[in-house]
Amino acid sequence: MKKITVLGAGLVGNAIALDLAKHYEVCSADASGDALAKLQACGIRTVQTDLTDAAALKSAISEADLVVGALPGFLGFEALKRCIEAGKNVVDISFFPEDAFHLDELAKRNGVTAVVDCGVAPGMGNVILGYHHAHMQVNSFRCWVGGLPQIREWPWEYKAVFSPVDVIEEYLRPARYVEGGRLVVREALSDPELIFIDGMGTLEAFNSDGLRSLIRTMPDIPNMIEKTLRYPGSIEYLRVLRAAGYFSYEEIDVKGQKIRPVDVTAKLLFPKWKLKPGEGDITVMRIVVEGLENNRPQNYTYDLLDKYDPETDTISMARTTGYTCSAVAKLVLSGRFARKGICPPEYIGAEPGNLKTILAYLNDRNVQYLQH
Fold first, then answer.
1. Average pLDDT, whole number, for the chain?
2. For 179-234, how does the pLDDT look when each residue is reduced to its tens digit (9 = 90+)?
3. In 3D, which of 359, 309, 308, 310 has the Cα closest to residue 331?
4. pLDDT score at 269
5. pLDDT band at residue 295 under the 50/70/90 scheme
6. By the 8 A CB rule, do 22 and 70 touch?
7. Residue ranges per domain, the chain?
8. Bridge pairing between strands 137-149 and 223-230
9. Torsional sign, CA 73, 222, 351, 362
10. Class of the CATH domain delimited by 124-307
11. Measured between alpha carbons, how far is 346 from 160 in angstroms, rounded to an integer?
């Protein structure tokens, strides 16, 4: 039986380990014993270790046929580099801020397939675009996506369904999109718009830096943009917090103590953003691909509306992100996808049969993309 090591046992890493354990021998590694406890109770082998330590990480992945990276973004790049140096194929969802292509030559030299950004968005959206880009002349790609609590609770109407540190980074990192063939850079939270989603009502969308690798790999598409969805009213209070300096990483002096405002904000907000036991979340996404197919105008729209699964106590963001990652891990382990180097998900979608296989895998887990 093939062996997989999952680095990180957070909400998403937990779901990935449980899903892959149905077909493979899985080991989950994390620094937190509490995070590993649920997996231990399910009979999955666990290793409690400091994954920032090179020797500890090397030991954790030594027997793996494939490594899944499910660490917070600030740990992801270095962990991926060490996996590649160890000659291990990787499927990663850590969404680190560094450019993964800096590791492309290293991965090729070591004969490694390293799939990055393999979640829902970036991730599944890239797979879908990769498929259509291989079959038509795409003129426009638009994606709206968000993870939301099922219950809107004042004042935040939001819960962090992945690493909260990465959530704050989303409100700070400049947003890049492509318009008329030109790269446009705008501040995060800019260009708000309202969008109606069946089953959700009207949501608020803002610019975020979600295109990532697509800017590099799809230079012939003249219009591409991704926006983050939140409940209406969210943008204003996030702008206030940012403008007031609460998200700043620059140290300030408070009664002789040097502190970073973002650390105080995190300490105050993260407990309030944490999902309570049994509390549900929703993942909502709309993708629109437009262009010419067989010299005729064509439009493809995909809608995803997924909810927390109370039977397995699995949050929606873990289902939609984690099961996409699992599906791709299966493709890599089976040899169906074997391209060497850094491989963003659009490379997977471009190869015959992969989109259909991934959609079927997700559908079997009741994660359904409705195409119309």
1. 95
2. 999 999 999 999 999 999 999 999 999 999 999 999 999 999 999 999 999 999 99
3. 359
4. 87
5. very high
6. no
7. 3-119+317-371, 124-307
8. parallel
9. positive
10. alpha beta
11. 27
**Confidence check: pLDDT of 163 > 70:** no
Return d(Cα 319, Cα 322) in angstroms, integer.
5
Distance CA 68, CA 96 (A): 14
Beta bridge partners of 252: 259
Q: Is the pLDDT of residue 94 over 90?
A: yes
Please tell me whether residue 74 adopts helix, strand or coil conformation. helix
Q: How far is CA 2 from the centre of its chain?
A: 25
Of 23-27, 108-112, 115-119, 279-283, the range with the lowest mean pLDDT is 279-283
Q: How far apart are the first and last CA of the chain?
A: 39
Q: How far lies 331's CA from each of 81, 327, 335, 338, 358, in Å?
A: 21, 7, 6, 8, 9
Give the up-direction half-sphere exposure of residue 12: CA atoms within 13 A in the CB hemisphere: 28
Q: Which residue has the tokens 């391209």?
A: 339
Percent of the chain past pLDDT 70, that is, above it, reads 99
Question: Which CATH code for domain 3-119+317-371?
Answer: 3.40.50.720
Q: Which letter, b or e, does each residue of 85-110 get, where b requires 16 or more Cβ atoms within 10 Å of its Cβ? A: bbebbbbbbbbbeeebeebbebbbeb
Q: Which is nearest to 2 in space by CA: 360, 235, 249, 333?
A: 333
Of the ranges 123-127, 189-193, 195-199, 262-266, which one carries the lowest mean pLDDT score?
262-266
Helix axes 316-334, 354-364, angle to 10 degrees: 130
Which value, in Å, is the radius of gyration of the alpha carbons in the chain?
A: 20
Token reading at 105: 């030559």
